[in-house]
Amino acid sequence: MHTYKAKKFNLPSLEGISDESVKQHIGLYEGYVKNFNAITSAAVELMDDSEKNAHAISELWRRRSFEFGGMRLHEHYFEQLEGGAKAPDTSSSFWQQIAAEFPMNGEGQPQLVLKNIGNMRGPGWAILYWDSVGRCFQTGFTGEQHQGHFVTLPIILALDVWEHAFLLDYGTTGKGKYIDAFFKNLNWGVIEKRFAEVR
Ligand SMILES: [Fe+2]
């Protein structure tokens, strides 16, 4: 079975999200990578006696996608912040599609839908997907990180709204301020590149 390695991210100091918060958050991400590998090894080992260990194997196998989701979504998340904030290229195909589908706010920003989803009660991820069949974006919310996804659709933008993402800087009621800070630090170039690869 493949063993995954935690990625390193080229992150500048962020505006409104402290270095300490980012450091702890990356520690959590690395935990997902470690746990995914550990669960895989444990489950494979138990398969030596799959009849006796059937229940344990089944539970471990279910947990794998939780850990994998934590790993992969955090990679999407931190990659979006690499290299520092970059404004969207309004001539890009991504932006033209966004402009066709979403109303802009007064500042010319289209992310209100994701902001609203992110602000819903409960931990999880607000996600922008691209549906190449419908030729349109989809926006969704996955509680935890492995359930509620739009199956087969590639992820274009992933916003982490677990409490660990904002508790240190903004307290329990600061999710909205954290989401604002996240968008201020977003490198839209990463988002545009993801879209260009799957459109
Ligand atoms: Fe997170």
List strands and helices in order, with pairings.
Elements: H1 19-46, H2 54-79, H3 93-101, H4 112-118, E1 124-131, E2 136-143, E3 155-160, H5 167-170, H6 175-185, H7 188-198
Antiparallel strand pairs: 1-2, 1-3
Helix pairs in contact: 1-2
The chain binds fe (ii) ion.
Fe (ii) ion is lined by residues 25, 28, 74, 160, 162, 164-165.
**How many independent structural domains?**
2
The major β-sheet equals: 3 strands, antiparallel
Q: Strand-residue fraction?
A: 5-15%
Give the H and E element order: HHHHEEEHHH
- Round the mean pLDDT to the nearest integer and report it: 94
Q: Superfamily at the CATH H level of the largest domain?
A: Iron/manganese superoxide dismutase, C-terminal domain
**CATH-derived architecture of the largest domain:** 3-Layer(bab) Sandwich
Q: What's the tally of helices?
A: 7
Class from secondary-structure proportions: mainly alpha
- Oligomeric grouping of the chains: single chain
Question: What overall form do the CA principal axes indicate?
Answer: globular
Through-space gap between termini: 31 Å
Small ligands present: fe (ii) ion
CATH third-level topology of the largest domain: minor pseudopilin epsh fold
Strand order of the largest sheet: 2-1-3
Low-confidence stretches: none
Helix proportion: 40-55%
**Rg computed from alpha carbons, rounded to a whole number of angstroms:** 18 Å
Annotation, overall tally of beta strands: 3
CATH top level assignment of the largest domain: Alpha Beta
